[in-house]
Specification:
Elements lengths: L2 H10 L4 E3 L2 E3 L18 E7 L1 H4 L6 H6 E8 L11 H11 L8 E5 L4 H9 L1 H6 L2 E3 L5 E4 L2 E4 L6
Parallel strand pairs: 3-4, 4-5, 5-6
Antiparallel strand pairs: 1-2, 7-8
Length: 155
Amino acid sequence: HTEDELSRSSHSNPGKSIVNGVKTNPASNSPKSGLPAPMGPPVYVDLAYIPNHCSGKNTDPEFFKRVRASYYVVSGNDAANGEPSRTVLDALLEGKSQWGENLQVTLIPTHDTEVTREWYQQTHEKQQELNIMVLASSSTVVMQDESFPACKIEF
């Protein structure tokens, strides 16, 4: 973008500005805007995928306080990038402890990692207290000469 284009785009849309060539909205509740998201009632869903392969980059206890799921999918199998993140798994415990109701929650890891195994063993008592179950499935699906782990979820 030229300086003229940047100037025009910010004047034509007064609620937005440009930072490093990216349009931003100061009232946005995006975590990157620097402003906290407005509080509201929690959202209840059957199934939620923990964002960013369960990386600590943008998932914290607030996510689990607001997004209350019967099932959370934990993907991530890249220890070098902190995926899955122990911090995020701990945030689940912290967020769920704030719910005020002891609804059953099932955590579905897509990979058997050292981080999830250690977290499971070290926090098992707290998981039971909070009514959190972790699926550890040894089921596999075989398709076109490939096999991979599988889990069945019923609603």
